[in-house]
Design brief:
Layout (H helix, E strand, L loop, with lengths): L1 E10 L2 E11 L4 E5 L6 H8 L7 E6 L2 E2 L4 H5 L2 E5 L11 H11 L4 H14 L15 H13 L5 E5 L7 H16 L3 E5 L3 H7 L2 E6 L2 E6 L1 H8 L4 H11 L2
Parallel strand pairs: 3-8, 3-9, 6-7, 7-8
Antiparallel strand pairs: 1-2, 1-4, 4-5, 9-10
Length: 241
């Protein structure tokens, strides 16, 4: 479903990502780990067609993100951390509808999917209220609904539970599990090791833009002779291997 082949991204003299390769199959949940500035967000933005790789190739559903970005975007739902991408003066419904229009959906389908998503995320009580007065959790749910209105097969989350209360964070974690059951491919970055252990089929660990590990947690535990993921992570990024 997603193939990342030797991608490099430079900003001037700074190399944010360095010859990174990994893949994600249909229905697979990949956890992306790395310290701040490791290149996680840059990598997700390249997959999402927001940034172009300086070198290398990314395929989503067999389509190249540089040569066929419009087709790739139709397959992807995106949520980048605190960047909800919502318009405060619009209601939740209007925000969702606006993005539905950007994806080329007709009004009837937008209405149907908006109602379905609102029910799924318990948003009906504030669906027709302006986003500007929402709590962070309410905005996060609206942003997720907006990212799913076109029914994407791939979902990219950049630290989706960052700054959320326990209830809202658990909604996100449950959602990722549901995505897996629905056969969607999910890549999400996180600093919370417990949610990575709970949700992921495989992990990709990046340090200073370079791949440190790509595989299952069980293999990672066996290689390091411990199931303490925090310890393994700190040894990897601390030692700079």
């Amino acid at each position: 479903m997603i193939e990342v082949k030797g991608i490099t991204k430079t900003f001037g003299d700074f190399k944010a990502v360095n010859e990174l390769s990994f893949s994600a199959q249909q229905g697979e949940v990949i956890g992306m780990l790395g310290e701040n500035g490791a290149g996680k967000t840059t990598t997700l933005r390249m997959i999402a067609t927001v940034l172009k790789p300086t070198k290398g190739e990314i395929l989503v559903g067999g389509k190249n993100v540089v040569h066929n970005p419009e087709a790739v975007r139709k397959q992807i739902g995106i949520l980048f951390g605190g960047e909800t991408g919502l318009y405060d003066r619009l209601t939740a419904r209007e925000n969702i509808a606006y993005f539905g229009k950007l994806y080329g959906l007709d009004n009837a389908l937008i209405k149907q999917r908006t109602e379905s998503l609102a029910n799924r995320f318990d948003m009906t009580r504030y669906l027709d209220k302006r986003v500007g007065g929402f709590s962070k959790g309410m905005k996060q749910k609206t942003a997720i609904a907006r990212s799913l209105v076109h029914d994407p097969s791939v979902v990219l989350f950049d630290e989706p539970t960052s700054g959320l209360d326990i209830t809202s964070a658990n909604v996100i974690r449950q959602l990722i599990g549901e995505f897996k059951e629905e056969g969607r491919t999910v890549i999400f970055s996180s600093h919370i090791m417990s949610e990575v252990e709970r949700l992921c089929d495989r992990v990709v660990i990046i340090h200073r833009g370079t791949l440190q590990y790509n595989g299952t947690l069980e293999t990672l535990y066996q290689q390091n002779q411990t199931k303490d993921l925090d310890r393994i992570f700190m040894e990897m990024v601390g030692a700079g291997r």
